[in-house]
Amino acid sequence: MKKVIAAFGALAGFVVLLVALAAVLVFTSPREHTVTGSVLVDAAPADVFARATDLDRREDWAPMLVKLRKTDDKHWTEETEWGDKMSFEVVAHDPPKFHKVRIVNADELGFGGAWSWRVEAHGKKTRVSITEDGYVDNLLFRVLSKYVFGHESNIKLTLEAFATHMGEKNPSVTFANP
Predict the structure, then answer these.
(1) Are 20 and 95 contained in the same domain?
(2) Partners of 34 in the beta sheet?
(3) Shortest CA distance to 37 belongs to which of 137, 127, 143, 141?
(4) pLDDT in tens, 32-74
(5) Structural contact between residues 178 and 62, judged by C-beta atoms closer than 8 angstroms
(6) Residues 6+ apart with CB under 8 A from 164
(7) What is the rounded distance in angstroms from the CA atom of residue 157 to the CA atom of residue 113?
(8) Percentage helix, strand, coil for the chain under 3-state DSSP, each rounded to 5
(9) 89-146 pLDDT, tens per residue?
(10) Does 160 lie in the same domain as 100?
(11) Are residues 84 and 139 in the same domain?
């Protein structure tokens, strides 16, 4: 009987420890996050910028994108492999160096924010950077986004796919603030 009580006590202690750990993760995961990733591409900045902002060719390279429906040159909706339908709008456009878009229907998704694309000459190559200023409302998804998937995961996938589309064989994405 003492072994059963000891086992039950150990199990109860383990459960309490898990709950405490979960609480710490939830309450130390801020709603907002910022992360910047960059990759080098062997092409002129103007060509890189034109390709990165060309909605008509985005389906050719964008990862997880199943369908893009363009409303006009500044508004569109993307359907992802996960079934999300994200509506975007261009909030800043300064060719050939800066392009910023934001999610319009964030209230429906439980997450949102903006992606800023920066394009700049870097020696004989062009550095392409994406900064995500995002947020996640749902506490569980906030923890998963930070500790399991990583806030940088979509930027990494996007920059790798874009660089490959631009002809890079083994693109290497670096992060300023993962």
Answers:
(1) no
(2) 133
(3) 127
(4) 889 999 999 999 999 999 999 999 999 999 999 999 999 999 9
(5) no
(6) 61, 171
(7) 18
(8) 40, 35, 25
(9) 999 999 999 999 999 998 898 899 999 999 999 999 999 999 999 998 888 878 888 7
(10) yes
(11) yes
Q: Judge if 3 and 51 occupy the same domain.
A: no
Q: Partners of 99 in the beta sheet?
A: 93, 117
Q: Which among 86, 169, 74 has a CA at the least distance from the CA of 134?
A: 86
Owning domain of residue 9 = 1-30
d(C-alpha 82, C-alpha 89), whole Å: 21
Strand partners, 130: 37, 117
Write down the pTM of the prediction: 0.83
C-alpha distances out from residue 3 to 10, 17, 26, Å = 10, 21, 34
Q: What is the CATH number of the domain that holds 82?
A: 3.30.530.20
Of the candidates 79, 61, 64, 81, the one whose C-alpha atom is nearest the C-alpha of residue 162 is: 61
Residues 131 and 158 in one domain: yes
Domain count for the chain, please give it.
2
Residue with tokens 């985005």: 58
Distance from C-alpha of 8 to C-alpha of 114, rounded to nearest angstrom: 49
CA distance 166 to 127: 12
